[in-house]
Structures are given as C-alpha cells and as structure tokens.
Amino acid sequence: MRAALAGAMLAMLGIAGAPAQDRSAAERKLESVKRELDSVAAERRKLEGERGSASRRLREVDEQVGQSARSLRETERRMSGDAAALADLQRQRGELRARVATHKDELAKLVRAAYAQGGAAPLKVMLAQDRVADANRVLTYHRYVQRDRTRRIAVLTQELQALDAVEREVAQRRSSLESARMQQRQQLVKLEQDRRARATLVAELDSRYRDRRSREQALGRDAKGLEQLLGRLRAAAARAETQRKAAAAREARQAR
Q1: What is the mean pLDDT of the chain?
Q2: Which of 10, 40, 123, 186 is the most buried (most CB within 10 A)?
Q3: What pLDDT, on a 0 to 100 scale, did the predictor assign at position 10?
Q4: 253 lies in a domain?
Q5: Is 153 a residue whose pLDDT tops 80?
Q6: In-domain check, residue 211
Q7: Residue 78 lies in a domain
Q8: Which domain holds residue 208?
Q9: Which CATH number do you get for residue 161?
Q10: What pLDDT, on a 0 to 100 scale, did the predictor assign at position 240?
Q11: pTM of the model
Q12: pLDDT at residue 46 is higher than 90
C-alpha cells in the first residue's frame, strides 16, 4: 500500500529514475509547496483580520441603523402627537383674531368719540354746569373714560403680540419637526446604503478567507505526504547503501 502511495506521489510529481533523483525531486517539490503554504497562510491571516474588522464595522453600522430608525419613529410619533397641539394653537389664533377684530371696532369707536368730544370736552361740560360739584363729577367721568381707553388699547396691543407669538410658535414647531424628519430620513438612507456595501464586503472577504483556508489545508496535506515520501526514500537509500557496503565487503573477502 505504501509502495503504491509512493508511486502515485512520484507519478504526480513527474519523478522517475534512480532513488537519489527521486529524493532530490521530492525535496524540490516540498520546498515549493512549503513556500506556497507560507504565502497562502499569510494571506489567510491577513484576510482573517480584514474580515474581523469588516464584521465589527458592519455590526456598528447595524446599531447605527437601528438607532436612526428609532429616532425617526420618535420624531414621527412627536409630529403625530403634536398635530392636536398644533390644531389647538391654530384654534387659539382664530379666536385671537376674532377678539382683535372686536377690539379694533371698539378702538375705532373710542377714537371717533374722542375726536368728536375734542381735547376741551371736560372744560366745555364744566362751563355748562350750574354747580361745581356737577362739574367735578363730569370731569371724573371723562378721566375714567380716558383711562379705560388707555387700558383697552394696552389689552389690544398685548393680544396682538400674543397672536404673533402663537403664529411664530406654530411655524417654528412645524419647521423644526419637518427639518428633523428630513435629516433623519436622509441619514437612515445613507446608513442603509453603507450597511449593504459593508455586508457585501464581509461576504467577499469571507469567501476569499474560506478559499485560502481550504488551499492552506490542501497544501498542508501535500507537504505532509511529501515529507513522508522523503522519509521513505531516505530509508530506502540508507538500506541500499548498507546493502552496497555489505556486498563490497563480501567481494573483498572472496578476492583474498
């Protein structure tokens, strides 16, 4: 069986002839196999490192994709939840506009009344009265009306400012949420593209790694077979040398 295996190995190597020639050819072949084995092993180790790094990066990107998707869902949830709040703000804005319109009408009436009475209205009333007490009451009334006008104008101004604030709040909230959603969608698209590219890279590196590992194992088996063959060839050469020396000794004894 071993002889047949040795013959097959020799045939594979293209070796024929004397044992010394067989051994020399096997040694050259073994050196070649070992050089290739070292090269393939180094390449396999390099690919193993690259595959590990690519796999870790892929896991990181997977986590980023998950986080980005969760952030997007949270933003959309907030937008959905804020829809009622935005509708309420718009309702408040409508109410304020109605109240502002009412105050504008009242203000217009007050302005027309003030214009009709003129700045000397209190004096005219006072001169038309027969008694000083009545005149004082009229003056007090007009001062009250003047203060009321001032208060209503202040209320109107405040409500106009409140209306502006509500409108800004509605616009800012809508713009902020929409901008955040757009950015998160763009980020998610980029991350998913990156994930697909890295998954492809990991698959390619894994395929190359398995190919190099398979080749390394095959070369290892070849090297082991060649070493065994060389061992048998050396043993055969040693036996042949022993037999040659014994034959030479017999011939020398017979020649005496």
Answers
A1: 77
A2: 40
A3: 46
A4: no
A5: no
A6: yes
A7: yes
A8: 2-248
A9: 1.10.287
A10: 82
A11: 0.56
A12: yes
Q: pLDDT tier at 165 (50, 70, 90 boundaries)? A: confident
Q: What is the pLDDT of residue 112?
A: 62
Which tokens hold the place of 174? 């809508």
Query: Total structural domains in the chain?
Result: 1
Pair 228, 49: CB distance under 8 Å: no
CA distance 192 to 185: 11
